[in-house]
Every structure is written in structure tokens, then in C-alpha cells.
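Task: sequence design from structure.
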């Protein structure tokens, strides 16, 4: 009996010691995390990266020329450089005169060979990685990047906008969380990594994020966002929310709206709902981090029961700014976030970027419409004027005019030369010598069955005018396609637009209501009206679908592109048959 008592006491003491060690280890871990965060905030307060940008924009033209000549010299002995006689391209003039404008098809074979392990094709040696473009076609495409690109993008883009947030929203970076999916690590057959978004990942950023959650990689999109929302909701003092893109942030809030009752119950009980399909080990890791919190659950329940207008600020009263990049076709997402879900909290689109290169940074976080100053040291920029049908000589950063629209052309350090991004921007002014641009539309998203060319922004505005004519209706989401992409599924012999919309407030539309969209298009676009009058374009066909169907379309886009869902730019105009057929099969009426 005495021996048993002694053994029990010894085991109890050991257990107590182990708990103390673990408790101290956790305290040390939290202390170290806090120390790293404070170090990052101190570094940002110096505004060194913003000062570097100020210096560069004052010397934009000379820096642009140096960047171009450096890229040409660096890659003159590659297969591409030898084929295009880089050695005789000694200045901007000769480069523009002798090297043609290019598109992805000009590099497709070079990229394929690079992915198979051939070296010195587009750049010296072997690329650091291939970036899967966040394109809208559904066809997977990739571009190579050097090891220097992620660091340059952080120094010239991410660090600059973090300094801007730190200056304009004091304390916003103290408690921040990001909604995202775990990186989708893949490799080519030659072992070259394929990544999704080369601008977002860095240890510096990881040190700033405050939420602690377990590894949740092997789960569905819904379960991953559910757990991220759970830990975000537990933290009442969050001061900043972040997502890669504004459309994805809307998706996060839709999960919140559908699941808030379950989330609140989990916070109250300190354990996960049994209805979630979560592996047992991840469920245990997650529940070990949860502590029942009836007070917070009661606060949240009261806010959700009041509705979702301004829910972000009501759930997180210390919220100062919401960060998400806006891209082409995101007008509806921005308006929905601004007017309802995030009402009362500034929305900041920090950078203008693509897989092909970082282009600009937004220095004005409080402006309603995002504008970006082009970063002189990031890429060599050229501009094709959009006010003429003739392909004139491209313009440089010093030659563009405020108030005019241009297609952006870039040459980067990673093997792309005079590359037409397909983005149309409007120059709104200058920051020192560097143009300030507003994103207007993506050329690939233009509707045109007879050469009438209606951009995604103009189509969206026309659609909104039409929706406002339907009593009680509000637009939740939409996409469209030219009839030719649907083949035999498309009704009518004349080419026309197929439009798929998700509405709130109405269950169905009459034929007269649907025809209103065609009438509004005719009112807004005389060329479209003339083609309709001649009978060479048929009337628009409007189909009702559900928000979940359109989300499923975005998921299919990501799957076909081989890209993580939170890193794609969802297409508004469908160019890929499988995408158009997918949404067609989910039409409700």
C-alpha cells in the first residue's frame, strides 16, 4: 500500500512537472511570436521601402531603361536571347523596333521545354519555380520566375503596402488574420516547383498573422474556411482581415452566413460540430486549442441575429481595414462588400499584380476606387493607346497622357519581352515621374460576336441597370458567354450572348423582364443596336442559376487551371467549353 502511494505521488509529480514544462513552453512560444511581431512592426514604422519607391518614381524613366538593358544583357546567351539577337539591342529604341510584341502563345513551347528540365531557354540556368497564371480561360498556363522574384516583389510591393497600412491605420497590424487555402505544392516532371501566387508568401508576413490554427490541408474548402472563421470569430480584438482577392472574401462571408449558428455553438461548447467532415487527428488538434467561451458566443449570436449588413465591424469592433486585391470583373464584389457585409470599414486593394510580374502599388488606401502607381524597378512598361484601331508605336512611362486608356505591355527579368498582359488601364495622373493607373478591364473578357466589343465593366454596368428594372431583385453573381462556345446547347441560329445570373428577391423572371437586358444593351451601345436591327445578332438569352452553381464554376476553373481556388481571377466571360457547359447544366429557369 505504501509502495503504491509512493508510486502514485511520483507519477503525479512527474505529470505536474510535465504540465508546467508544456505550459512554460507554450508561454515561451507565445512570447517569441509576440517579439517577432513587434520587431516586424518596428521595421515597418521606418518606411524604408516607401522611401525607396519615392526615390525610384522621381527617376522612373532612367530606372526603366536600366532595367530593360540589364534584362537583355543577362539573358543574351539564352536560346531566346540568341534567336532574337539581344546583343544588338543596345537601347530602348532598338528593342522596340526589332523585338515584336508578344503573347503567351509565343512562349508556350519555351515554357514546356523549361518545365521538362532544359536550361538556358528563357533565362539563365534553371528557374526557381513556375507560376500558374490566375487566368480566366480555364486552360492551364505557366511562366518561369527566378529566385530573386519573390524577394523583389516583397521589397517593392508587399513591404510598401504594409508600411502604408501601418501609417494610415495605427494598430491594424497588431491583430490580423488571413483567409486562404494551404499552398498547393506541385512539381513538373523535372522537379521544378509550381506555385500559385509569388507575392503573398514570406516569413515576415507569417510573423504578423495572429491566429493560431492547426494544419488543415487535407480537407474540403468549406471545412478549411469553417475552422479559419472559428478562430477568427473567437478573437474579438481582430484589427485587420485579409484575403488574396475581393471575390474570395465574399465567398468567406457566404460561408459565415450559412454556418454562423454552428460556429457560435462550437465557440460556446469548445468543440467542433459532429457534422463537419474533419479527420480525427485534425479534429483533436483543433479542439485542443478551443476553450468554451459562452460570453463570446452570446455576443456573436446577438450580432448575427440582427442581420449581415455591416457584420464585419459588428463582430470585430476593433477592425480598421480589410485588405483584398481587386481585379477585372470585381466591381460587383467590391460593391457588395462595401455596401453590406463590410459597411463602415475601409476596403484596401494594395497591389496590381499578375503571375507575369508585379506592376503597381496603391498608395491611397482610403480612396473608393483603387489606383496604383507603377513600380519603376519591377518591370519595363510600355503602353498601347486604346483610342485608335491602328497598332501604333508603344509609349513609355514618360509619354502617356492622364485621362487616356492603354493596354499594358511588360518586359520582366524572367524571360518575358514586350508581353501583352491583356489588361486595359487608364492613366489617372502621375506620382513624380511614374504613371498612376486604374484597372479598367481585361481584353479576354470582352463580349463580341460581330466586332461590337463590349467590355466586362460596361456589360456589368448595363446588367445592373437592367436588374434595377426588375422589382425586388438584387444581383448576387453572374457570368456570360458568347453563343458559339456552347455549340448545339445554344438556342437560336444567330450569334448572341448567353447570360447566367443569380438573383436575390425574385424566384423567376418573365420573358419581357429578361428581354429588358437586350433593350438596355441596345440603348447603351449603338453598334450592338445596329447589328440587332439588321438581324445579324440575336437577342440576349437570360438564365437564372444559383450562387452555389456559380461558385462551383469558379471551383472548376481552379481545377482546370491547376490553381488554388483563392488564387484565381474568376471569369465573367467564359472562354472554355467545359466551363460554359457546366453552368448551362445548372440553369434553374
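Answer:
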Amino acid at each position: 500500500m505504501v509502495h503504491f502511494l509512493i508510486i502514485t505521488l511520483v507519477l503525479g509529480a512527474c505529470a505536474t512537472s510535465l504540465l508546467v514544462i508544456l505550459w512554460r513552453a507554450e508561454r515561451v512560444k507565445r512570447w517569441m511570436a509576440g517579439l517577432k511581431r513587434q520587431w516586424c512592426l518596428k521595421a515597418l514604422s521606418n518606411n524604408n521601402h516607401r522611401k525607396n519607391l519615392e526615390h525610384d518614381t522621381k527617376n522612373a524613366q532612367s530606372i526603366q531603361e536600366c532595367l530593360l538593358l540589364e534584362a537583355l544583357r543577362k539573358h543574351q546567351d539564352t536560346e531566346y536571347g540568341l534567336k532574337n539577337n539581344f546583343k544588338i539591342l543596345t537601347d530602348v529604341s532598338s528593342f522596340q523596333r526589332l523585338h515584336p510584341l508578344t503573347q503567351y502563345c509565343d512562349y508556350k513551347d519555351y515554357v514546356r521545354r523549361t518545365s521538362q528540365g532544359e536550361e538556358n531557354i528563357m533565362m539563365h540556368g534553371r528557374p526557381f519555380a513556375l507560376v500558374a497564371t490566375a487566368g480566366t480561360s480555364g486552360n492551364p498556363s505557366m511562366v518561369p520566375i527566378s529566385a530573386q522574384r519573390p524577394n523583389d516583389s516583397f521589397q517593392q510591393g508587399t513591404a510598401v503596402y504594409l508600411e502604408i497600412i501601418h501609417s494610415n491605420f495605427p494598430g491594424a497590424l497588431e491583430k490580423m488574420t488571413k483567409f486562404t487555402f494551404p499552398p498547393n505544392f506541385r512539381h513538373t516532371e523535372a522537379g521544378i516547383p509550381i506555385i500559385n501566387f509569388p507575392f503573398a508568401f514570406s516569413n515576415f508576413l507569417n510573423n504578423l498573422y495572429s491566429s493560431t490554427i492547426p494544419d488543415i490541408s487535407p480537407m474540403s474548402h468549406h471545412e478549411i474556411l469553417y475552422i479559419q472563421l472559428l478562430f477568427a470569430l473567437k478573437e474579438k480584438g481582430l484589427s485587420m482581415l485579409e484575403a488574396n482577392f475581393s471575390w474570395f472574401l465574399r465567398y468567406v462571408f457566404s460561408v459565415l452566413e450559412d454556418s454562423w449558428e454552428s460556429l457560435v455553438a462550437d465557440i460556446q461548447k469548445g468543440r467542433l460540430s459532429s457534422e463537419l467532415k474533419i479527420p480525427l487527428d485534425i479534429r483533436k488538434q483543433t479542439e485542443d486549442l478551443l476553450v468554451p467561451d459562452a460570453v463570446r458566443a452570446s455576443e456573436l449570436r446577438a450580432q448575427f441575429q440582427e442581420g449581415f449588413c455591416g457584420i464585419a465591424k459588428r463582430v470585430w469592433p476593433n477592425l480598421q481595414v480589410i485588405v483584398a486585391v481587386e481585379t477585372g470583373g470585381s466591381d460587383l464584389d467590391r460593391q457588395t462588400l462595401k455596401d453590406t457585409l463590410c459597411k463602415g470599414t475601409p476596403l484596401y486593394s494594395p497591389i496590381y499584380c499578375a503571375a507575369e510580374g508585379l506592376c503597381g502599388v496603391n498608395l491611397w488606401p482610403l480612396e473608393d476606387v483603387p489606383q496604383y502607381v507603377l513600380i519603376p524597378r519591377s518591370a519595363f512598361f510600355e503602353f498601347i493607346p486604346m483610342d485608335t484601331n491602328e497598332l501604333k508605336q508603344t509609349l513609355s512611362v514618360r509619354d502617356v497622357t492622364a485621362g487616356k486608356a492603354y493596354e499594358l505591355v511588360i518586359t520582366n527579368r524572367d524571360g518575358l519581352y514586350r508581353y501583352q498582359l491583356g489588361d486595359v488601364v487608364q492613366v489617372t495622373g502621375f506620382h513624380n515621374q511614374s504613371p498612376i493607373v486604374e484597372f479598367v478591364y481585361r481584353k479576354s473578357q470582352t463580349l463580341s460576336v460581330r466586332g461590337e466589343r463590349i467590355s466586362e465593366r460596361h456589360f456589368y454596368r448595363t446588367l445592373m441597370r437592367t436588374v434595377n428594372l426588375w422589382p425586388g431583385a438584387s444581383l448576387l453573381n453572374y457570368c456570360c458567354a458568347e453563343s458559339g462556345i456552347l455549340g448545339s446547347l445554344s438556342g437560336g441560329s444567330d450569334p448572341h450572348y448567353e447570360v447566367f445570373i443569380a438573383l436575390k428577391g425574385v424566384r423567376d423572371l418573365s420573358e419581357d423582364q429578361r428581354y429588358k437586358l437586350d433593350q438596355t444593351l441596345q440603348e447603351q451601345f449603338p453598334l450592338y443596336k445596329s447589328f440587332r436591327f439588321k438581324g445579324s445578332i440575336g437577342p440576349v438569352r437570360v438564365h437564372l442559376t444559383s450562387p452555389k452553381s456559380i461558385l462551383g464554376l469558379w471551383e472548376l476553373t481552379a481545377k482546370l487551371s491547376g490553381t488554388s481556388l483563392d488564387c484565381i481571377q474568376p471569369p465573367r466571360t467564359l472562354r472554355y467549353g467545359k466551363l460554359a457547359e457546366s453552368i448551362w447544366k445548372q440553369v434553374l429557369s
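The two ends are 80 Å apart (CA to CA).
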